[in-house]
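Researcher: Quick test of sequence recovery. C-alpha cells follow.
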C-alpha cells in the first residue's frame, strides 16, 4: 500500500501503533533480484547520510526503522563502540538508510532529514535523539511530540509541521525502501551490509569487530 498524504497525516494523530497495523510506505513486491555490493553501494532517491571517508576499505550500511526497539538498542550500545574504534579513526564508512516499518517511523525519518538537511553529523545526532526518546514520540501524539523535538533542533513549529506533510519526501523514502526490499531483500530491521554481505538482526560489537578487522587485513 502506498500511503497518501491524507492517510499519513491522519495516522500521525493517533496515540498508539495498533491502528497503524497493515500500513506501510510501500507495496512489497515478490520476485526480488539478487543483491550485489554495487547494488548496496548506490543511493537511490535520497542522498546517503554517512560518517567516515567515502573511499574507506570497509563500508557498513544499516537499514533501520525509527520505531524499531532493536535498532534503538544498537544505536545506544553497539554503534558508539564502532564509531570510536573504526569511524573516528577513518578506517570505515558507516551509512544509515531509512526502512520505516510503519507510518510513525516514516515520520521520524522525515523529521531527521528536515532538521539535518545535508549535514550527516547532525543527521546522526537527530537519529540518536529520536531513538533515545522513542517511547515518548511513538506512544504519544506523534505530531505534537515531533514538533517539539524539531523546535529543540532549530525548526520552527511551522517548518516541522510542513516537514511532516511533505509528500515528496515521503515518496522518496518509500522509493528507497522499495528498492531495499526488492533488490536487496531487506525485510526486517536492523539489517546490515558489510561490503555487500548481509547481516540480519541484533549483532554484537564483537561480531562487527571480528568482521571489520578481517576485511581491513585483506
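Model:
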Amino acid at each position: 500500500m502506498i500511503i497518501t498524504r491524507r492517510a499519513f497525516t491522519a495516522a500521525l494523530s493517533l496515540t498508539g501503533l495498533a491502528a497503524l497495523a497493515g500500513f506501510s510506505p510501500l507495496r512489497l513486491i515478490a520476485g526480488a533480484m539478487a543483491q550485489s555490493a554495487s547494488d548496496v553501494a548506490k543511493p537511490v532517491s535520497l542522498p546517503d547520510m554517512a560518517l567516515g571517508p567515502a573511499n574507506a576499505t570497509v563500508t557498513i550500511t544499516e537499514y533501520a526503522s525509527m520505531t524499531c526497539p532493536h535498532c534503538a538498542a544498537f544505536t545506544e550500545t553497539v554503534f558508539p563502540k564502532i564509531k570510536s574504534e573504526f569511524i573516528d579513526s577513518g578506517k570505515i564508512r558507516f551509512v544509515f538508510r531509512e526502512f520505516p516499518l510503519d507510518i510513525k517511523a516514516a515520520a521520524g525519518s522525515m523529521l531527521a532529514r528536515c532538521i539535518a538537511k545535508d549535514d550527516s553529523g547532525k543527521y546522526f545526532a537527530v537519529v540518536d535523539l529520536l531513538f533515545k526518546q522513542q517511547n515518548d514520540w511513538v506512544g504519544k501524539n506523534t505530531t505534537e511530540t515531533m514538533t517539539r523535538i524539531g523546535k529543540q533542533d532549530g525548526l520552527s513549529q511551522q517548518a516541522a509541521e510542513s516537514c511532516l506533510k511533505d509528500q515528496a519526501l515521503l515518496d522518496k523514502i518509500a522509493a528507497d525502501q522499495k528498492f531495499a526490499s526488492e533488490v536487496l531483500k531487506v525485510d526486517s530491521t536492523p539489517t546490515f551490509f558489510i561490503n555487500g554481505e548481509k547481516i540480519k538482526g541484533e549483532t554484537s560489537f564483537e561480531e562487527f569487530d571480528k568482521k571489520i578487522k578481517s576485511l581491513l587485513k585483506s
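The radius of gyration is 17 Å.
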